[in-house]
């Protein structure tokens, strides 16, 4: 009997540890996006998906220019599929990479610089002033950098806050516009990776990153791949 007692307290103990490791501002009401396949907070080091931004809605987890999702349910008609209806009722505008579409190839086009995965969800229709939060779990405190998978019709800048405080300053997102592409709308689909885009000092445990769109907008943001700075 005695040996079973500690296990009764294990959930409480784990909860206490989790609270102790939280670096989030006490006033923050957003929560991690926890739906399949994303069933735990996103981890660093690792690939952080922009489309799995926090839950909590407009003004808490994100700010978007309009309440309509311009991708899910609009560009991508509601048809019962996971990708077309992803976070359909939220203001952040979401789409995903499409391969082998005819007659014109969309994201696997010849002007893409770094080929993204197929069906990669991303935050699009970005405009200056917009932002979204992503709660992350950092395994080891330290300095990190990240590679951003993105497209950028006009170039632009973003910045990142850590736990409510500015942490990076403006980060330049190089344009992926290529006048050689004869299809005008495809300027939004030239994928690339911005390597070593940032430097962030992160504490161990749970933190919230705020991605701000500063200038130009028109960027599609898919993933930040975080790794320790050597
Ligand atoms: Ca919107
Ligand atoms: Ca938007």
Automatic annotation (TrEMBL):
<dbReference type="GO" id="GO:0030246">
    <property type="term" value="F:carbohydrate binding"/>
</dbReference>
<keyword id="KW-0732">Signal</keyword>
<feature type="domain" description="CBM6">
    <location>
        <begin position="87"/>
        <end position="227"/>
    </location>
</feature>
<dbReference type="InterPro" id="IPR005084">
    <property type="entry name" value="CBM6"/>
</dbReference>
<feature type="signal peptide">
    <location>
        <begin position="1"/>
        <end position="20"/>
    </location>
</feature>
<dbReference type="InterPro" id="IPR008979">
    <property type="entry name" value="Galactose-bd-like_sf"/>
</dbReference>
<protein>
    <submittedName>
        <fullName>Carbohydrate binding protein with CBM6 domain</fullName>
    </submittedName>
</protein>
């Amino acid at each position: 009997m005695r040996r079973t007692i500690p296990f009764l307290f294990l959930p409480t103990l784990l909860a206490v540890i989790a609270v102790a490791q939280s670096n989030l501002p006490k006033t923050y009401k957003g929560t991690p996006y926890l739906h399949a396949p994303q069933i735990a907070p996103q981890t660093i080091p690792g690939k952080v998906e922009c489309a799995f931004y926090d839950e909590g809605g407009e003004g808490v987890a994100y700010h978007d220019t309009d309440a309509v999702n311009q991708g899910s349910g609009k560009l991508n008609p509601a048809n019962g599929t996971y990708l077309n209806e992803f976070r359909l009722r939220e203001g952040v505008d979401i789409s995903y990479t499409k391969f082998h579409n005819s007659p014109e190839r969309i994201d696997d086009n010849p002007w893409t610089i770094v080929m993204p995965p197929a069906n990669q969800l991303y935050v699009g229709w970005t405009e200056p002033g917009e932002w979204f939060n992503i709660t992350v779990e950092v395994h080891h405190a330290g300095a990190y950098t990240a590679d951003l998978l993105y497209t950028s019709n006009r170039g632009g800048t973003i910045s990142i806050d850590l736990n409510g405080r500015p942490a990076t300053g403006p980060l330049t997102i190089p344009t992926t516009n290529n006048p050689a592409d004869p299809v005008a709308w495809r300027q939004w689909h030239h994928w690339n990776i911005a390597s070593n885009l940032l430097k962030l000092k992160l504490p161990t445990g749970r933190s919230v990153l705020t991605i701000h769109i500063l200038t130009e907008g028109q960027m599609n943001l898919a993933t930040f791949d975080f790794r320790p700075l050597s």
